[in-house]
Amino acid sequence: MDSHAVARASADPAVIVHAVNPPGYRDWDRLVLPMIDNTIAAAIATGATIVLPGTVYNYGPDVFPFVAEDAAQHPLTRKGIIRVAMEQRLRDAAEKGARVLIVRAGDFFGPHAGNNWFGQGLVKPGKIPRAITYPGKSGIGHQWTYLPDLAETMARLLERPQEDVRFERFHMGGHWDPDGTAMIDAIRAAVGRALPVRRFPWWIVRLAAPAVPLFGELSEMRYLWRTPLQLDNTSLKAAIGNEPHTPLAEAVRETLLGLGCIADG
């Protein structure tokens, strides 16, 4: 939020990774766009490339279930509308000389990740899981992205000689869980027990939403757990070959280790 500090930090780097969000999903309407504006100003001033880890919030069910980069963006939520506005500002910045790379992906998980469904919904950080709380409907597919794979994907895209390309968007395939059971089974295997699965208490979230801002934000995203949305990574594979892809069992184990939910060894 401090434009001068962002400018100072961006004086030398060739790449600015805009991987920031307001903590706890709060105050998106006040903070998100000024944040990206400060990054854009710094990038235009120094000639740096802006890299944005994108999300699926931009999309509404009108383009589900298999979504390409150029699909229409008709978001259902406030965060989705803001995400669309962010990307439009980045497109405008590219016309002013910035280079922009957006990599959209499914729900993030990984060691020491910030706000995410895996570490705040399915399990609890610092505790050995006694059960798995799953937000999705039975039989509905869901897309996950392991953060180290996302980072490697961005690095490979940046390594290509693309001096004349100012604005690019790619979709990651990540880990597609066709019915929700793959992630559950991976957690069970990492913990070493057949953990029971509990339904996420959406009714409590809905009732408490007026008093708890975080619950209101979570409630808005429920549609992504009730309808399958899978990102089409055809363009990404054409650009870099096979997408970086850590096996799910390994990715989940490393994530649980980082969250303090299991012990190493």
UniProtKB/TrEMBL annotation:
Pfam families attached to this UniProt entry: Epimerase (PF01370)
Segments forming domain NAD-dependent epimerase/dehydratase: 38-173
Name of the protein in its database record: NAD-dependent epimerase/dehydratase domain-containing protein
Species of origin: Novosphingobium nitrogenifigens DSM 19370
